Structures are given as structure tokens and as C-alpha cells.
Amino acid sequence: MDLTGIGISKLDLFSSGIIILLVIILALLFQYTKVGRALRAVADDHQAALSLGIPLENIWAIVWSIAGFVALVAGLLWGSRNGVQFALSLTALKALPVLILGGFTSVPGAIVGGIIIGVSEKLAEIYIPPVLQDAFGGNFGGIEGWFPYIFALLFLLVRPEGLFGEKHIDRV
Amino acid sequence: MLYREAGQFKTTYKADSQIFPILQDRVGMMILLSVAAIGVPLFASEYWINAILIPFLIFSLAALGLNFLTGYAGQLSLGSAAFMAVGAFATYNFQLRIEGIPFFLSFILGGLSAASVGILFGLPSLRIKGFYLAVATLAAQFFVVWCLTKFPWFSNNSSSGVISAQTLTIFGFAFDTPISKYLLVLFIVAGLALLGKNLVRSSTGRAWMAVRDMDVAAEVIGIPLMKTKLMAFAISSFYCGIAGALYAYCYLGTVEPDGFSLELSFKILFMVIIGGVGSILGNFLGAGFILLLPIFLDIVLPFISKLLHLPLSNATISHIQLMVFGALIIFFLIVEPHGLARLWQIGKEKLRLWPFPH
To answer: Which residues of B touch A150 (CB under 8 A)?
Structure first.
């Protein structure tokens, strides 16, 4: 598909659509349903949730199923775009900086964090190596391997709770 | 154990605060050390020393380093392989670039370089903790390996970043046979383990444990959080750095940055978890378990496949190995979250009471 000179593949549009749909469903699920409220209660404090009568074992099953399902969707989309190899397990590690950049406990945060990390690592890969090459000589590709982590790290130093995360207060 | 401390009275504080307060334990340790130092070089084959015992000791040291950080100070780290890499490459460069520097000095300098990198990547731990810190140390892992690969200076302009360790010479004696290398590793590891055992009993170790159990409470009772955490990072990385230098000089001989990958970090973390978080003995048990299990499976699996008339190819066997490995780790975490060290302790308690149930 070609609109105004920028080539966009139909697959990308299709997957974006699926992701937006999924995010909306998940956000609604976590925010408004009984199950979502129970999940957030468990995340906040296991014991308090248990004492309120929330069945912890069901919650674990639900949480892991949702996590697996979302990962499955991500894996399918990734696979249809870039192919599937064993190294995919290392790619999935990059979900961690995305998560902490966006902030835990926030579905939109994960999406915004994902866009920021994804775009910034590609930009870094394109624009930083030539600068280093001018300074030191040699080949400096592969920055995208570590850039997300350092980026998330620097971000955490400024805002430990991430973009949309809840502020954490310690009590003794 | 079968023996008890009955009849062994302590009359001084010094006697009371020994590492092994029971005579039989001291004798046992002596026997173990002398078997390791005298018996093994006499009787073990070259294969055992080169392929099993040396890596076992080196990985125990690396696990010990990680255990200070994760087990005692409670800071999760996924970057131990990176600190090993820093230690190895720093030692190599000190040895290469400073004329006539003694090996021990370059080992220590290599460890100190690793410690300074550790402090650098430990700085975020002052603001973030737990899961977040894991990402910070992942940054260390990927960044350090990338740096060592891309800046040719670190590997003396070798095209693929591979370094070949120089021959170890201490006081004119060349450590080039497996046995001499083994003894050197044993000496260093035993010394550092003793140091570590004492360290975790000292005020530093106690401060670490206080921070691990609850950092806000520790701060309230007057433990300087920054100093304690950075100290944990420094000492942990120092141990990992020394382990990395030994890994390059006494085990592999030639190393490349990619050898110190995330997988190695995870391997060390598994050793700590399986051996026992927050235990010195556990590192040795964990390292032994992780290193010996694949060898054990290598021997047993073809046997089983023959027994069951299943034609298993080598590739299948190595995959089964991975599966058994993963399953065992999960099994261990469920059955005994405190690792092999706790099992050993429970066994000791049982034997102490034996043959009575209570």
C-alpha cells in the first residue's frame, strides 16, 4: 500500500489494528471487570487479596493464560514479519526495558514504551555508529543490542516508576 | 553430623567465633583441602582436572561473587558474565601493556577494574530495585560485551576480539601444565572463599543482609545504603572479575567477548539458585551440580535409549539434556527453594539426632 509516498505494508497495518484491539480489550478487562479488579488486588498485596476471598489459584491460572495469549499474539505477528528463530527468546528480553519504561501496572504504558524503545533503538542503530566511527574508526554496528537497556536505565534514574506507573511509597 | 559439639568448651571469644567451631568440622575441612591439594594432582586424570575440576572451581568463585550481591545484599544481577569479561580482558591488557608486571598484581588489577565497572552499573541500584535492577544489570551485560567486541584496543587489535592468554609466570615458575594451573586456581579460590566466609560474618556482611531483608528499615537503623550497596557491587564484581581472569588464563586459554554471553550469566545465576541463595557452601554445590549434570546425562541418556530401544540421535540427546535441566531447576525451586546448601544442613541436623527421630 502506498499513501503519500510512504510505503506501508498491509501486514503492518493489520498487526497494528490487532494490537490496538488487543490493548483496548485488555485495558477494559483490567479496569472494569470483576476479574480485572481481582487481578489488580492480587498484584497489590497477595495476603490482603486472599483474605478478601479472592481465589489466588484461579487468579494465577488467569494471569498466566492472559500472559501466554498476549505473548502468542506478539509471537505470531513477529513471526509473520521477521520469521521465527531460536534467538527470538533473546528478543523477548527487550520486553523488559519496554515494561519499565512504560511503567508496570499500565497497559497503555506498555504500548507507548514499546514504540519509544522500538523507534529509538533503530534510530540509534542508524545515527550513532557513524559518529563513533568518525571518532575512533572501525565498525560500531549492533548498538541496538544494548541501546534499549541503557536507555531504560537512564530513564529509570530520572523517573523510577516509569512513564505511567504508579508511584511507589515505601513503608517500614 | 554423627558427632556433636558435646565436651568442646569455649573459653575465649576467639575460640567461640571460629568459622568451624567443632573440632571434627575443622579436621574434615583439613582433609578435604589436603585431598584437593595433594590427592587430586596425584591421582586425577588430566581430563578430570582440565575439563571438570578447574571450571568447577572457577565457576564456584563466580557464583560466590554473584551470591554476595544476590544472596546477601539482595540485589538481583544478570550481568555477572560481563564482569567476568572485564576481569579477563583487563588482566590481559595489564599483562600486555605494562612491562614486567607480576601476574598476581595484574589479576588484582583486573579484579579492581571489574569492581569499578560493577560500581558504575551498581549506581542505579540506589534508586531502583528488584526487577528494575535486573534490567540495569542486563544493560551491563550487553554493553560490556559490545564494547569489548567493537573497540579493538581491548583485544590488542585482534580482528574478531579473540585474546590468547599469555603463559602464567609467577616468581619465575611457569604455570603451563594442568596440575600447576589447578593448584593455582585452588589456592586462589580457597583463599577468596575463606575471605568471603569471613566477610559475610563481618559488619559489611551483616549490613548487606539487613539491606536485603528490608532496605528502608536498614537505613533507619543507620546503615548507609549507598555505601553498602555499592560495596556489594564492588566486591561481587571483584570476585567475578578474578573468576573471569582465571577462566581466561587457567581454563580456556583463548577467550572472546561473545563467550561471556548472557547464557553464562544465567548459568552462574542458576548455580547460585540451585546451590543456595545466601550461602558460601552452596556456590560450590551449585557449580558442581550444574557442571556435572550435563556430563552425567551424557553418559546416562545413551544408555537409557539403548535400554528402551529408542534410536536417539546426538542432537535429540542434547535437547533432552536441556529439557531435563530446565525441569530439574523448576523441581528444585519448588521442593527446596533454599537450594542444595539447605538440603546439606537438613541432612546434618538429621544425622545429629540419628538414630532418634527428635
So the answer is: 139, 143
User: Cell 498466566 maps to which residue?
Assistant: A64
pLDDT of residue B237: 94
Q: What is the Cα–Cα distance from A67 to A137, expressed in whole angstroms?
A: 44
Q: How many residues does chain B have?
A: 358
Cα distance between residue B238 and residue B65, in whole Å: 7
Q: How confident is the model at residue A172 (pLDDT cuts 50, 70, 90)?
A: low
CA gap B136, A66 in Å, rounded:
27
Taking CA A169 as the corner, what is the angle to CA A165 and CA A171, rounded to the nearest 5 degrees? Answer: 150
> pLDDT tens-digit profile of B172-181?
777 778 888 8
Question: What pLDDT shows up at residue A77?
Answer: 87
Residues from chain B that touch A96, judged by Cβ atoms under 8 A, are 131, 134-135, 138
**Shortest alpha-carbon distance between residue B153 and chain A (Å):** 10
pLDDT of residue A140 exceeding 80: no
C-alpha distances (whole Å) from A109 to each of A66, A96, A115, A165 are 17, 12, 10, 8
Cell digits of residue A108: 497503555
Q: How far apart are CA B65 and CA B137, in angstroms?
A: 14
Give the residue numbers in B contacting A (CB under 8 Å), as ranges: 124, 127-128, 131-132, 134-136, 138-139, 142-143, 146, 149-152, 214, 216-217, 220, 262
Residue of B nearest to A95 (CA): B135
Please report the residues numbered 59 through 78 in chain A whose beta carbons come closer than 8 angstroms to any beta carbon of chain B: none
Record: contact A153-B124, CB cut-off 8 A:
yes
**What value of ipTM does the predicted structure carry?**
0.77
Q: Which three three-digit cell numbers place residue B181?
A: 594451573
Which positions of chain B have pLDDT values less than 50? none
Q: In this predicted structure, which of A149-158, A162-171, B113-122 has the lowest mean pLDDT? A: A162-171
Give φ, ψ of B164 to 5 degrees: -110, 120
Q: Model confidence over A35-71: pLDDT tens digits?
A: 888 888 888 888 888 888 888 888 889 989 999 999 8
Are A142 and B151 an interchain contact pair (Cβ–Cβ within 8 Å)? no
B139–A150 C-beta distance less than 8 A: yes
Q: B128, B150, B160: which to substitute to probe chain A, counting the most A Cβ within 10 Å?
A: B150
Least Cα separation, residue A79 to chain B (angstroms): 23
Domain ranges of chain B: 21-260
Q: Is the peptide bond before B355 cis (omega within 30 degrees of 0)?
A: yes
Cell of A159: 523517573
State mean pLDDT over A154-170. 74
| Contacting residues of B for A170, CB less than 8 Å apart | 216
pLDDT of residue B324: 84
Which pLDDT does position B56 carry in this prediction? 92
- Could you tell me the three cell numbers for B59? 565457576
CA distance B77 to B330: 20
> E strands along chain A, which residues?
2-3, 6-7
Rounded to two decimals, the pTM is 0.86
